[in-house]
Structure formats: structure tokens, C-alpha cells
Amino acid sequence: MKEKGLLIVLSGPSGVGKGTVRKAIFSQEETKFEYSISMTTRNPREGEIDGVDYFFKTREEFEELIRQGKLLEYAEFVGNYYGTPVDYVRQTLDNGNDVFLEIEVQGARQVREKFPEALFIFLAPPSLSELQNRLVTRGTEADDIIRGRMETARKEIEMMNLYDYIVENDKIENAVEKINSIVQAEHCRKDRIQQRYINMLEVE
Ligand code: 5GP
């Protein structure tokens, strides 16, 4: 029996640079995982191609996909729907290939429920560590600015709970390198590969 691929979920707060990091990963020739192209009801931006960047759908079409159970997860984000096609994900994993999702946090929570064995990576904003630095050298920012940033930071830190790994997006190439290393390490996990060796003894 073919080993299943790994489902990799990259998520994190809005504006952290998930899309940029994902594009950098897929611009590398050695990247072996498959990007799951999402469905969305938002309008294409200049240069975006249907079936490459997204599958662009009307609200009616999207709601029909929800009704038919065709989405692994979906969320409404700034007035538009975004969702992951479930058949593509299952088929790719069953074929033994890794699937990479780049989605916002509400969707990641739904994937956690359906695929607890998936790998969840949280992309954290460097502003969190900058904030920490600023707090120790207090007096440089007005109190209300610090308070506002603390509130944002608190929400972002709470979001981290769901994830297996946290990668700070200080520099794109650092984040890409860390994500690749995490995926590689994850493939070496005993739980994932031990069965391969047990099967080997059985065919002898
Ligand atoms: P954008 O409109 O900038 O392409 O994407 C907006 C947000 O939607 C980003 O945070 C992106 O990660 C997220 N997103 C893209 N595809 C999906 C998806 O299939 N499901 C969910 N839940 N979020 C998505």
C-alpha cells in the first residue's frame, strides 16, 4: 500500500506574509509538495489567473460547493469566501504526495478537526519580538500605542495554540528554510515511517 502524503498547513495572522512565503517556497525547483489552489469569491487581481492563483467562483457557485460538501474548510474573510477543495486534497494525499495549504486561521482550525495528523505551521509576525524589545526599552512609545500593540499581540499569541510549529517571518528566506526543514523532519517521525519497516519484514 502506498504511504499517504503529508498535509501541510501554513497559517497565521492577516498581513504576516503567508502568500509571499508560499510563493517563495513554490518558486524553488526542489519543492516537492503540491499547492492546493483555493476557491474564492473575490475578484481576480491584476495578473491573477483562474485555476492558477485561485478558482474564481460566484457566491452562488461557492455556496453550492458548501452544500455539496466539496470543501475541506472554508471561511469568510473581508466579505469574501475562501475554501479548500476536498477531493483534490484527498486524492493527492492518497497518491502519496504532500499537499500544502496556505489559509487564514479560521480555516486552519477546521482542518485541525478533520485532519488532526496534519502539520500545522504558524507564521508569526516579527512585530511580536520587536514589541518585546520595545517593552524592555520602554519610554520610546506612547502608552496607548504600546497598549494597542499589546492587544494585537495577545490575540496573535492566542492563535498560536492550535499549531505544531511557530516560524517567525523576519526574512522570507529564513522562513522558507525553516518551513522546509520542519517538513523534512516531520517525514522522519517514527509514527509516520515505522510501518514501512514493519511491512518490509512481512514480505520477507
Ligand atoms: P487574498 O485575498 O489576499 O489572496 O487572501 C486573503 C486571505 O485568505 C489570506 O490570509 C489567505 O491565506 C486566505 N486564504 C486563501 N485561500 C484560502 C482558503 O482556501 N481557505 C481559507 N480559510 N483561507 C484562505
From TrEMBL:
One of its GO terms (molecular function) is GMP kinase activity. The lineage of its organism: Bacteria, Bacillati, Bacillota, Bacilli, Bacillales. This is Guanylate kinase. Belongs to the guanylate kinase family. It holds the Pfam family Guanylate_kin. Residues 5-184 form the Guanylate kinase-like domain. ATP binds at G12, P13, S14, G15, V16, G17, K18, G19. It is an enzyme of class 2 (transferase). SUPFAM superfamilies: P-loop containing nucleoside triphosphate hydrolases (SSF52540). It comes from Bacillus seohaeanensis. Essential for recycling GMP and indirectly, cGMP. Its EC number is 2.7.4.8. Keywords: ATP-binding, Cytoplasm, Kinase, Nucleotide-binding, Transferase. It comes from the Bacteria. It catalyses: GMP + ATP = GDP + ADP. It is found in: Cytoplasm. The gene is gmk.
